[in-house]
Structure formats: structure tokens, C-alpha cells
Amino acid sequence: VQLQASGGGLVQAGDSLRLSCADSRRTFSNNAVGWFRQAPGKEREFVAVISWNGGTTYYADSVKGRFSISRDNAKNTVYLQMNNLEPEDTAIYYCAKYRKSYGSTSRVDVTSWGQGTLVTVSS
Question: Which of 26, 30, 110, 117 meets the CB 3.0–4.6 Å disulfide criterion with 96?
């Protein structure tokens, strides 16, 4: 598996978590990378994306102001800092490598997926 997501867990509402996505093949430094999530019974949805150099980020309205995406290309890792978590954030979180240097909200633009990490937020 090229992309390894980690950092999920069980937390209470209002807590924070930081997810990591490591690129074992060290190939995504020129690609946008994003996070999607999938809650039980729902479709996979866009959460956040960061451009190849970290200069551009974009968030879903539901997480804007609470989540922050960043990357360290020297470590081949992308992070998702999640603050003030809500029960509605409960889902499996997947990191995604895009085909191009700048990403979008669409899964169509994703070329590879990580295996997912489970985030559970209790009320």
C-alpha cells in the first residue's frame, strides 16, 4: 500500500486528533493530496485538499475553521489536524493522492487511496 493513513481513534466531542498520511514510495511531493471520509451508510465525501507545495488549501464547509491540512514533503507526509470534533465527524478517513499538483473536491481526480483510519467521536 503506497499511502498509509494513521492517527484515528475514539475521542469525545470537543477533542482533537491529528491524522497522518505517509507515502511509502515517496512519490507524492509533486501531487496534491487530500482527505475524504465515509460515514456508515453514506457516500465518501471530500474533507480537505492541499496543493503540491502546500501553498493552496481548500476545505469542505462542514470542517472549515476546525480542520487544518498541512504537508511536509521532506517527510513525505500529509497531516489533517482536527479540532473541536463533533459526533458528525465520525467516519473512516482516507487520504488521497491526486493526479495533478492542484486538487479538487472530486474523487474522479484521485489516482490512489490510503487504507483508511477510523475516527469515532462520542457525544
Answer: 110
CA atoms within 13 A on the CB side of 91: 21
Give, as one character, the DSSP assignment of residue 106.
-
DSSP code for 102: S
User: What is the per-residue pLDDT for 68?
Assistant: 98
As given in the structure block, the three cell numbers for residue 64 are: 472549515
- The radius of gyration of the chain's CA atoms, rounded to the nearest angstrom, is 13
- How far does CA 71 lie from the centroid of its chain? 11
* Closest to 95 measured CA to CA, from 33, 26, 27, 2: 33
- pLDDT, tens only, 10-43: 999 999 999 999 998 888 889 999 999 999 999 9
Q: In one letter, which amino acid is 38?
A: Q
Q: Tell me, what DSSP letter sits at residue 21?
A: E
